[in-house]
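forwarding from the other thread:

> can someone predict this with zinc ion?

sure thing
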Amino acid sequence: MFGIDPLYIAFAIPGLLLGFWAQWRVKSTFRRYAQVGTARGMTGADVAQSILQVHGIRDVRIEPSRGFLSDHYSPGEKALRLSPDVFNGRTIAAAGVAAHEVGHAIQHAQSYRFLGLRSALVPVVQFTSPLAVPIIVGGFILSSVTGPTIGQLVTIVGLAMFAMVVLFQLVTLPVEFDASRRALAALEQGQILGPQEHDGARAVLRAAAWTYVAAAVSSVLTLLYFLMRSGLLRRR
Ligand SMILES: [Zn+2]
């Protein structure tokens, strides 16, 4: 049904292409700067430890994680998990990504509002994310079988669930931009990177930011598509 809907293609393809492009770009930028060693030669783990120390954060653990670009900060566990390339890497990419993850730990320590909102939305989205689209589609099918009343009600429930996913993606944007801003400031203040190295770290973090932009654009477009398809947002 969606494979042949030109409206779906018009709404889904831009987000999909942007997503592929962003993924390609973050990987290639990371790989490029993961080849470039820094003058100070600190590992990503060292960089993270030093920035945490400067900010007086003592209760966050730094742990190695598995997988390429699997770096993340877990507010629940107060754990900063760095992928092997970042944890052990003495490169511009490692310093940039490690500092970014510390940026999230600093947000947490300072009760940054959007991080709190994002964390509150995690369990909601874990519940709604896998169910929203099947419920919306179920509503469409019900509308065509039993008439619009029940079908539309089901569709609206599905749309509301999908809207939570969109909200989550949108709230993620300030959280990610702010973490990178904090990271670059900390790298500069701590003189962890030289000016040229700093530009490389900025390039890596900018590329990473695009993946979140792509995810947000994609989910907004998908919501718009379902709104139009449901007739709640009238097609011109
Ligand atoms: Zn992040």
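The radius of gyration is 21 Å. thats all i got for now
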